[in-house]
Design a protein that fits this description.
Blueprint (H helix, E strand, L loop, with lengths): L4 H11 L2 E9 L5 E9 L1 E2 L5 E2 L7 H8 L3 E6 L12 E5 L6
Antiparallel strand pairs: 1-2, 1-5, 3-4, 5-6
């Protein structure tokens, strides 16, 4: 892929404004179900992802019940060979207001 992976990751995270946010949505039977959707995202100076989520959003309710999340940044847009394009995944969320 590349010899400078940290630089590639930094550039990808700073370039993209969308990611897929996945969380564990509590079901009626008490089981946790995967729930993913497209979110707008920015990154802080230290590459910490910044998301604005409403208290009414299903993800907010799910994260309140279980803070495990996955955030997938996908750098495949506009490329012929999507199998070789960069992707970055981050996990474990928390409340930071």
């Amino acid at each position: 892929m590349t010899d400078d992976m940290p630089r590639t990751v930094r550039n990808l995270l700073r370039r993209l404004d969308r990611a897929s946010l996945a969380s564990a949505l509590p079901g009626q039977d008490g089981a946790l179900w995967p729930y993913a959707s497209l979110v707008l995202v920015a990154v802080d100076h230290d590459l910490a992802p910044l998301l604005l989520l409403s208290d009414l959003a299903e993800h907010t309710k799910a994260i309140a019940a279980d803070s495990r999340v996955s955030l997938l940044f996908d750098g495949t847009a506009g490329l012929d060979s999507r199998w070789r394009a960069p992707r970055v995944a981050a996990g474990t969320g928390g409340e930071n207001r």
